[in-house]
Specification:
The complex is a heterodimer. By secondary structure, chain A is mostly helical. Helices cover 74% and strands 0% of the residues of chain A. Chain A has helices spanning 2-34, 39-42, 57-65, 68-99, 105-114, 124-134, 140-164, 168-176, 181-192, 194-210, 213-218, 226-231, 241-261, 263-271. Chain A is globular, with a radius of gyration of 23 Å. Chain B has 2 domains: 4-228, P-loop containing nucleotide triphosphate hydrolases (Rossmann fold, 3-Layer(aba) Sandwich); 237-326, Nucleic acid-binding proteins (OB fold (Dihydrolipoamide Acetyltransferase, E2P)), CATH 2.40.50. Chain B has helices spanning 42-50, 92-103, 107-120, 136-148, 166-183, 194-200, 218-223, 228-233, 245-249; strands at 4-13, 16-26, 31-35, 57-62, 65-66, 77-80, 154-158, 186-191, 203-208, 211-216, 240-243, 254-257, 262-265, 271-280, 284-290, 298-303, 313-318, 324-326. Chain B is an alpha+beta fold.
Chain lengths: 276, 334
């Protein structure tokens, strides 16, 4: 009897989990489906779900009208560049906070994180002016630096928690073995923190890839990434749902695939340190 | 070469002074043991010598040269940690090679030294394993191997055996002692276990609350403890300490007598008491004696098997020449 109850409960839980999962995924699914509809079916009332004439027309129109590869390339460079730059800066920062903390380390960490609570638009004006002054508007370099700075607190915070898990004696052993600070970080700390660093890289790549506020405000044509590519389909000539959906699908596909393959790593990374 | 000198070394953590001004010289080739109860500052002292902690004031010299501000990597010392502190992502071979890699020793020489160390430490078959695949004793051997290959001027051991089980500990104790005989390199060894201190040391430094209570050879400490603390700490089971009238008879505030220096005598003796617990080891028997009117309890060692049971009356005679006398300050009266 007891077993039957658990079995039943298991089934209910499974059904519930799937329902919630589908609910969360539904907008993405709907976008992908819509991208295969004609513009007329896309706005049909009542909406059609699966049974319509599937077409690839939207994709070819989108391809014709804008250079997808250029946007993709910009996205890769900006997201990848800001993530790598961020980690290079964050590893030494997290090292010092985790292994030689001062009395104010906790405060500094919190202060860094608190910058994330600031509404981004609050600093848009000064940053925009700075960009004009420095000639960084619509450049990949400028955007890479801004996205790196925006995500830096999260990178430092995540690395800090991973580093805290590494026993200090091992680093001391490295010091006794003749390793300088550079060797200690390069040959001992980093290899031991690889799982943590990998999930930090991944999460920040995703965050930078999806970042829309700064990419839309600071780019025009040359450095525009995929977020701008989607946006370009949302307004000017009225609403074309199917084409907008096709553009969106093309923009999220790479990150969706990356996330799918690395979900194990990502989940492990995000819960790492929660349970020892 | 590996003479280490501490001159007026102090260490404070914030307001708390853990090492008051301290002077100590460790001669080249000597096996020195820092021993004391936990929290006595012995590990801190070792970490100061290693350079892992900065000293608050004073000077540390290694072979006469001021090493106070030299980083640990450049002091030429090797350390073996309590937790072994092996690099989990490297094979045993790479662990042992790491200090040589840092020193820029060429590959052929590295391999030669690794083979040599592995052979000496019974690790040859395990060179390609990761530390996670080794037992505690093997890990400790890898840690020692990693220390040996860089040919340091001194070895520092921070309670290296306390994570091992009793049988393994005795074996490793011998191995480390043999290593010292073979290499004749200075070794500083920190432990809270006075048996390890007695069996391994050329020189024991007894510490309490950051102060050096006594420095001397194991037998110096055993035969002539400078104060009650050292008297109670060195020797197993502990020395019996007796105050009051019996001590007065010897013109002392406190007298001490080791369990092995009290004889169990038939019929009559200087002292009389009741047997409490008897611990039979086969080779010896330890009696815990109550109601002697001298102290809460006395411990007595009798050689071999002695047939006395719980509650029996026992007669004891201390060997007069083995009685240690201490004054009211706890210091030895010569």
């Amino acid at each position: 009897m007891a077993r039957a109850v658990t079995q039943k409960r298991k089934m209910i839980n499974t059904a519930l989990a799937w329902t919630i999962g589908l609910l969360i995924f539904f907008p993405i699914l709907w976008t992908i489906l819509t991208s295969f509809k004609t513009e007329a079916t896309a706005i049909a009332d009542p909406p059609v779900f699966l049974f319509f004439d599937w077409t690839l027309e939207n994709y070819s129109v989108v391809q014709e009208r804008s250079n997808y590869m250029q946007f993709l390339w910009n996205s890769i460079i900006i997201a990848g560049g800001s993530t790598i730059l961020g980690v290079i800066i964050a590893v030494p920062a997290a090292w010092s906070m985790a292994f030689v903390p001062s009395r104010r380390t906790k405060d500094i960490l919190l202060w860094m994180l608190s910058t994330k609570m600031l509404p981004a638009v609050g600093v848009l004006y000064p940053i925009y002016l700075l960009f004009i002054e420095l000639g960084l508007l619509d450049t990949r370099v400028g955007l890479t630096v801004v996205l790196m700075l925006i995500n830096l607190p999260i990178i430092v915070w995540m690395l800090y928690t991973y580093f805290r898990e590494i026993p200090g004696e091992i680093l001391e052993a490295a010091r006794m073995d003749g390793a300088g600070l550079r060797e200690e970080i390069l040959y001992v700390l980093t290899p031991m923190a690889v799982p943590g660093i990998a999930s930090t890289l991944l999460l920040n790549f995703i965050l930078a890839w999806n970042e829309a506020f700064w990419t839309l405000n600071l780019t025009a044509a040359k450095a525009a990434p995929l977020t701008a590519f989607i946006a370009s389909y949302s307004s000017p000539e009225g609403l074309f749902y199917a084409k907008l959906s096709a553009a969106s699908t093309m923009a999220i596909a790479p990150i969706l695939i990356l996330g799918w393959f690395s979900q194990k790593q990502l989940v492990r990374g995000l819960t790492f340190g929660a349970v020892k | 070469m590996g003479q280490i000198t501490l001159e007026k070394v102090t260490k404070s953590f914030g307001e708390v002074e853990v090492i008051p001004p301290l002077d100590l010289t460790i001669e080249d080739g000597e096996f020195t043991v820092f021993v004391g109860p936990s929290g006595c500052g012995k590990s801190t002292l070792l970490r100061l010598i290693a350079g892992l902690e900065d000293i608050t004031s004073g000077t540390i010299r290694i072979d006469g040269a001021d090493a106070t501000n030299i980083p640990p990597a450049k002091r030429g010392l090797a350390m073996v940690f309590q937790s072994y502190a092996l690099y989990p992502h490297m094979s045993v071979r790479k662990n042992i090679a790491f200090p040589m890699r840092m020193a820029g020793i060429d590959k052929a020489e590295q391999d030669r030294r690794i083979e040599q160390a592995a052979a000496a430490l019974n690790l040859t078959d395990y060179l390609d394993r990761r530390p996670g695949q080794l037992s505690g004793g093997q890990r400790q051997r890898v840690a020692i191997g990693r220390a040996i290959v860089r040919e340091p001027s001194a070895f520092l051991f921070d309670e290296p055996l306390s994570n091992l089980d009793a049988a393994l500990r005795v074996g490793m104790r011998l191995e480390i002692s043999e290593l010292h005989k073979r290499l004749a390199t200075t070794m500083i060894y920190v432990t809270h276990d006075q048996v390890e201190a007695m069996t391994m040391a050329d020189k024991i430094v007894v510490l309490r609350a950051g102060n050096i209570e006594q420095v001397g050879s194991p037998l110096d400490l055993y035969h002539a403890p400078q104060n009650i603390f050292v008297a109670g700490f060195i020797g197993s089971p502990k020395m019996n300490l007796i105050e009051g009238a019996e001590a007065k008879k010897h013109n002392a505030h406190t007298i001490g007598i080791r369990p092995e220096h009290i004889d169990v005598t038939e019929g009559s003796g200087t002292w009389t008491g009741t047997v409490g617990v008897a611990e039979h080891l086969g080779s010896d028997t330890f009696f815990h004696i109550h109601q002697t009117g001298l102290a809460e309890s006395l411990t007595v060692r009798a050689p071999g098997e002695v047939n006395l049971r719980h509650g029996d009356t026992i007669h004891l005679t201390p060997r007069e020449d083995q009685i240690h006398r201490f004054n009211a300050e706890g210091l030895r009266i010569p």
